[in-house]
Design brief:
This protein has eleven helices and 36 strands. The chain has 690 residues and is α+β, with helices and mostly antiparallel strands. It has five domains: 127 residues, Beta Barrel (Elongation Factor Tu (Ef-tu), domain 3); 64 residues, OB fold (Dihydrolipoamide Acetyltransferase, E2P), CATH 2.40.50.100; 138 residues; 43 residues, no CATH class; 284 residues, Apyrase (Neuraminidase, 6 Propeller). A hairpin with an 8-residue loop joins β18 and β19. It starts with a helix and ends with a strand.
């Protein structure tokens, strides 16, 4: 027996080595999954100009420290000055023409009025003389008894020669004066009407000139932030082509860390998670950052972060925001460690040997929910939202909902989005602006509002609910056309407007009273489906439009209310630019394009259209319930089946109310904004679509 026990000790030793190795490997992968490397980067501002310019003076050099507001570069633009001079000349011509035309009309008016007065006075004097003579003769003859009857002075037959002459002169006065009066009235109307076209042209040119002068003022480029000059690419006297980088400016210290987490461990980190960032050059130098972005795809590691440069490694990008006051150097390599408590050795061993248990629970969670938005909410009960989303792709392969990001400005009730690719910014509209000001907000991909701009040429607009981009860079903005609690609609909430973008500035191009246009032509075409739909909505004070998109010269309007036969209605207006210019609609120019029923879920909740967006050959819709419970919001993303035209629900959003859609910055993605009310921050998220 002793010999048998003695002979088994190598087997025990092997088992002990296996156990120790397993624990070591488990601990190693635990460390690997919670720590990863990154590079300290900064916000960099690239200074360029959208037109060809000439460098007049460069006041900074590479590596120089600058303060906010410091003049860096002076530019000149011959093309811009040529435009300014051309428009100024047009304005002078119009003003001169306006003065000449009005002088000629006024001169003719004075001539006709003088002629009318002279002729009138002449005839009235002759009539007065005859009437006086008639009275005198009548009074003299009235006392003579020998005057025979029928002489014309003593009776009232009115047929005396003098009375006939008086009547003849009065008729001559009427016939003479009336044509002159008509000519005077026509000239006065001409004078009034002549002011409107010239006034409109003057206002348009003055607005355009103001915009050009505003562009000219930007030829002096000032530092937008306090920082360091990164590069200066041109010298004085050189010509710069449009959008070519003139210089770059970055902050003095890094503002974020871009890390790369190994592809097998990417699910172990989530949005908003706190992480520790440590310098590899300075010992015990650690700061706390927050995860603000997780990449939507697996990418190759930068060569600098690979342990073996020749060995390709793949992972997921993680963006970490760090405090402004930090000790890192731009481009420094750092170590990032998750501050979330990781499972112990026993838990790791359990997961290592029994992985099917945790995955089974995750898959069961996927089976219990209908929409990915709800899955993301349910993931709070599990170790990682990423694990759940990855596992659920088996059941929901259509879309991938990325984390919801708040807009970093309170008080914005985001109602519409539009991606402006030329300036790499999202246009954000709010349906409630201070004093109904025509404000347009510009937002970057991370939800930061970088700028607010007023629409030049527009005093106010109420209830901006939808936006669409047409041809030649024209942008359409429409209100909801809904009435207030008193059943009335404000004048500033009736107009469909078109604007033109100039860099980061916007100017009014056209405006039409859409509410009156629809109502007038609906009355004229009463009995057609679209006309009855509009008239019923207006009479019942239920008209409510929230979605709009543009395609092939036509504007598509999606109505939240009323329903028609239990379905939401999408109207189509052909030749929208012509309709706005003439403020009229031809018969058949407007029609019902589609009616859809957005109903889903176990309780068959019906949603109404809150936005439309035509993307990659497919029409996408967002929907929200018409009546929502206090403190509760919900909504869904839909698309129309390309074959049947039936709506298909792609994903739902719990506690979120989708209001607007735009194309995402990455391929096959949509950016969606959510209106959370004035007291909360509006939110955005990205959805992958096929």
């Amino acid at each position: 027996m002793r010999r048998q026990n003695k002979g088994n000790w190598p087997l025990y030793a092997v088992w002990l080595i296996i156990l120790v190795s397993t624990i070591a490997i488990t601990r190693f992968y635990g460390v690997e999954s919670s720590s990863f490397y990154g590079i300290a980067e900064t916000r960099e501002i690239v200074v360029n100009f959208e037109d060809a310019v000439e460098i007049k003076k460069v006041s900074v050099t590479e590596g120089q420290s600058v303060e906010k507001g410091m003049l860096m570069v002076e530019l000149s633009s011959p093309d811009l000055m040529l435009k300014i001079n051309h428009i100024s000349h047009q304005l002078d011509q119009l003003k001169a023409q306006k003065g000449v035309d009005q002088s000629a009309v006024h001169s003719r008016l004075r001539q006709l009025k003088a002629e009318k007065a002279a002729r009138k006075n002449e005839l009235e004097n002759r009539i007065a003389q005859l009437e006086n003579q008639y009275k005198i003769n009548k009074s003299l003859l009235s006392g003579l008894k020998s005057t025979p009857s029928g002489s014309g002075y003593g009776d009232n037959d009115g047929n005396s020669p003098m009375e006939l002459k008086i009547r003849s002169l009065k008729e001559e006065l009427r016939l003479c004066i009336n044509p002159l009066t008509i000519q005077i009235e026509l000239l006065q109307k001409t004078l009034v009407n002549a002011k409107d076209p010239i006034k409109i042209q003057l206002e348009r040119l003055e607005n355009e000139l103001a915009l050009l002068w505003k562009e000219n003022s930007k030829l002096n480029i000032y530092a937008q932030i306090s920082g360091i000059i990164g590069s200066v690419n041109f010298k004085p006297g050189e010509t710069v082509s449009p959008f070519s980088p003139i210089l770059t400016l970055h902050t003095r210290t890094p503002s974020f860390i871009k890390g790369y987490i190994y592809e097998n461990a990417y699910a172990d980190i989530g949005m908003g998670e706190k992480v520790n960032v440590a310098s590899l050059a300075i010992a015990n130098s650690v700061i706390t950052g927050s995860v603000v972005g997780i990449g939507a795809r697996i990418v190759a590691y930068p060569e600098r972060l690979r342990k073996h440069p020749d060995l390709q490694i793949w992972g997921r990008e993680v963006v970490i925001r760090i405090p402004v006051n930090n000790h890192f150097i731009l481009g420094e390599k750092v170590l990032i460690t998750s501050s979330v408590k990781k499972p112990g050795v026993a838990d790791q061993l359990k997961r290592l040997f029994t992985p099917s248990e945790s995955i089974a629970g995750i898959l069961q969670a996927c089976m219990n929910y209908s929409f990915q938005g709800e899955i993301l909410q349910a993931s709070k009960n599990y170790s990682s939202q990423g694990e759940i989303l990855q596992a659920c792709k088996t059941f929901f392969p259509q879309e991938d909902v990325l984390p919801v990001i708040p807009l970093y400005t309170k008080g914005i009730e985001a109602s519409a989005l539009l991606y402006l690719e030329a300036i790499d910014r999202y246009m954000v509209l709010s349906d409630d602006t201070p004093g109904n000001a025509p404000l347009v907000m510009l937002m970057d991909y991370h939800g930061n509002i970088t700028k607010e701009e007023s629409i030049v040429g527009l005093d106010k607009i109420n209830d901006m609910e939808s936006v669409a981009e047409g041809e030649k860079g024209i942008i359409y903005i429409a209100p909801s056309l809904s009435t207030n609690r008193k059943g009335k609609i404000k004048a500033a909430g009736k107009h469909l407007i078109s604007i033109q973008r100039h860099g980061e500035h916007f100017a009014l191009v056209g405006r039409t009273d859409l509410y009156s246009l629809l109502m007038t032509h609906a009355k004229a075409e009463r009995g057609t489906p679209w006309a009855d739909f509009i008239l019923d909505g207006i009479s019942e004070k239920l008209l409510y439009m929230e979605g709009m998109t543009y395609r092939g010269g036509a504007l598509f309007l999606g109505f939240k209310a009323p329903l028609m036969n239990g379905k939401s209605v999408i109207l189509r207006i052909n030749e929208i630019d012509r309709a706005m210019k003439t403020e009229t609609l031809k018969p058949g120019q407007i029609s019902i394009w589609k009616s859809v029923c957005l109903r889903h879920g176990k309780d068959q909740t019906q949603e109404r259209i809150s936005d439309l967006f035509y993307f990659e050959g497919t029409l996408y819709l967002t929907g929200t319930p018409l009546m929502k419970k206090k403190g509760y919001r919900s909504g869904s993303l839909w698309k129309l089946d390309e074959t049947t035209g039936a709506p298909i629900c792609l994903t739902g959003f719990k506690d979120l109310q989708p209001e607007g859609m735009a194309v995402g910055k990455e391929k096959n993605t949509l950016m969606i904004c959510f209106d959370q009310g004035r007291k909360e921050k509006s939110k955005i998220c990205v959805v992958k679509v096929k």
